[in-house]
Amino acid sequence: MKYITRAVWVLSVVSLLTDTASEMLYPIMPIYLKTIGFSVVLIGILEGIAEATAGISKGYFGKLSDLSGRRVPFVQIGYAFSTISKPMMAVFTFPLWIFFARTIDRFGKGIRTGARDAILSDEATPETKAKVFGFHRSMDTLGAVIGPILALLYLYFYPEDYKTLFYIAFIPGLLAVLSSLYLKDKNVKEHAQKVKTPFFSFLHYWKVSPTAYRKVVIGLLVFTLFNSSDIFLLLQAKQAGLDDTWVIGVYIFYNLIYALFAFPIGILADKVGLKKIFIIGLGIFSIVYFGMSVNTNLYFFFGLFFLYGIYASATEGISKAWISNITDKKDTATAIGTFSGLQSICTMLASTLTGLIWFQFGATTAFLMTATVTLFVILYFLTIPKPSTIPDNSKS
């Protein structure tokens, strides 16, 4: 696997360790926050602010990375911020401090995302982009399997000892930061642009970006606007009669399928076309949501979460590979950061929209609406022509 270079390996290991730390806390975060006095409304506000911080900052720091010609410092600082936030949430339990710690975590994600994905893009050729991004997603998602399993094991022996888990999560996070020290920037600009960069200046990229980029991103954002948080899928499973252990079990199962299939599907996408595999992924997503609109048995839910893992494997890494292939190499971090930032905002709106529809009309209507909109998004992507050539200056 010559296309999986040293830098790709290091980034993938760093992501695996960081996701292990984050996902160790994901299942117990709402429970922990409630034990220290957070209401459901306050938890919602906390997550909303945290995700908005990550979303908006992705574009800004992506642009800074492109202007400076540096990638590694953004990656290292970003992962360091996310790591130090873990014990911070256990040290003090004041709401303002919790807000600060959670925002620091998401801010770290905003700092690193564009630069990290730019490194992955630079390490690949247009013909190997999906393989490289797929491999990274496989390793990253493996952490989402390991983390919750470690949390379940710990809580089995030490029930309700949530605070200690935040300290334990610091260990893989610290290992991730130390691993990132093995990264080195290539071809650093001797005379990097030193220009004033307003926080929302990355939005200017939309005006000057290639037409193909705008067409693809519009489709992706419309889809994201109706693709709500996975929590709604887990809530549907819970309402269908699954107990807490099975709900966490299907979540781990989904991440395991995602981790196993992201790399091989990336290899397939490089052979048959990124657009084709991405559209197939959307089709699978629509099937899952049509299926979720029916309350049914445990085995059916495992089948749907299996398909959901295939959908994630066929879309998340491939969408970034697709974007990096239709944009100029010097703008990679800005292009992916801008998309990721707008995507984060749409994800927030999606969860709010789904929650309102669920509350007013029920879960079945919410899932049917998402599935139906996805079919229209598929039709939209079918109208986008496959790029006949890739600009010379986008090649690695």
Name the features.
mainly alpha, 396 residues, single chain
Description:
The chain has 396 residues and is mainly alpha-helical. The chain is 77% helix and 0% strand. It has 16 helices and no strands. The chain has helices at residues 6-25, 29-35, 40-68, 72-91, 95-122, 129-157, 162-180, 205-208, 211-225, 231-239, 244-272, 274-292, 298-313, 316-325, 332-361, 363-383. Helix 10 (231-239) crosses helix 11. The chain is globular, with a radius of gyration of 20 Å. The two termini are 17 Å apart.
Q: What letter string, H or E per element, gives the SSE order? A: HHHHHHHHHHHHHHHH
Helicity range: over 70%
Strand percent estimate: under 5%
Backbone CA Rg? 20 Å
Shape: globular
What structural class should be given to the helix and strand makeup? mainly alpha
Strand segment tally: 0
Largest sheet, strands/sense/barrel: none
Mean pLDDT: 85
Low-confidence sequence ranges: 388-396
| End-to-end Cα distance | 17 Å
Quick take:
The chain is an all-alpha fold and 396 residues long. 77% of the residues lie in helices and 0% in strands.
What's the layout of helices and strands?
Elements: H1 6-25, H2 29-35, H3 40-68, H4 72-91, H5 95-122, H6 129-157, H7 162-180, H8 205-208, H9 211-225, H10 231-239, H11 244-272, H12 274-292, H13 298-313, H14 316-325, H15 332-361, H16 363-383
Helix pairs in contact: 1-4, 1-6, 1-7, 3-5, 3-15, 4-5, 4-7, 5-15, 6-11, 6-14, 9-15, 9-16, 10-11, 11-12, 11-13, 12-13, 12-14, 12-16, 15-16
